[in-house]
Amino acid sequence: MDWVHCNNCSKKPSANIAFFVSACGHVVCSKCISKTAESPSPPISNEKCRVCHVDTVLLEINRSLRPDVQVLFQNPRTLAVKYMNTLKGVMDFQEKQRARLHKLESEQLQKTVKCAREMNTMLKKKTANEKQLSTENKDLKERLDAMERDMANMARDVAKKNDEIEKLRRNAAASSKTPGSHPQKKYPSLNGDTPMQPLSFRDVSHSTPMDMFMNRRKTLNTHESAPAHDNLFSLNDSILSADGIAFGACSTAMATPDILGISKRPTARHSSEFTPNF
């Protein structure tokens, strides 16, 4: 410390002379202060600085000096190395923390990018699915509308058919209640199950008077001993006159109902006679 000297008398440190540092930043020797050098080393208060003449506190410069004051008298290189090491440690610590933070942020960024890509892929799939579902929904709606239209048409057809059935039922009921109507008799048809109306020649003009024929038949039936060949195809007695009609044996065997093969039934007009009923 070749730079240490008394700021008042310019003396340099020696074995017999003590030096003091003031709170105002000056260095003075023991001879320049009011007290002797043999005075104790604790801080000297209520002393005026010999340089700036202000009240100050003096501390003796020795190895027991406070660290914050002692550092003023250390070698700058030593301090530089010491502080550089300290600074390096501080810088290393901060750099490690900064690198750790950068790594964490980088990992979070990568996770965020990955999540964003996955979300983008999911969004594309969802958009495609929504588009497909929208198309299917549109098709189903069109089909549903078509089915509703078909059902409406079918309902109208059913209602129309029901109206027709009800009309036919009313007509049938009205016809069954009409006076003089009789239920139809079922007879076997010629080539199916279609019922046939019963036929009758009662109200039809006959080529041969039927009633007179039946009366004549009663008389002819008494002649059972007549030969069969005389009764068949004999026209000797079949003479038509202005007064009436006479029938021969042919009338008995080959009358009109007999030729048609239709049985006869009694009528209300002649209860004991047979009248052909078709």
Automatic annotation (TrEMBL):
Gene Ontology terms for molecular function: SUMO transferase activity; zinc ion binding
GO BP terms in the entry: homologous chromosome pairing at meiosis; protein sumoylation; reciprocal meiotic recombination
Keyword hit for Repressor: no
Signal peptide (from-to): none
Pfam family, one: zf-RING_5
InterPro entries reported for this sequence: Zip3/RNF212-like (IPR042123), Znf_RING (IPR001841), Znf_RING_CS (IPR017907)
Keywords: Meiosis, Metal-binding, Zinc, Zinc-finger
GO cellular component: synaptonemal complex
The RING-type domain, residue ranges: 6-53
Keyword Ribosomal protein included in the entry's annotation: no
The name this protein goes by in its record: RING-type domain-containing protein
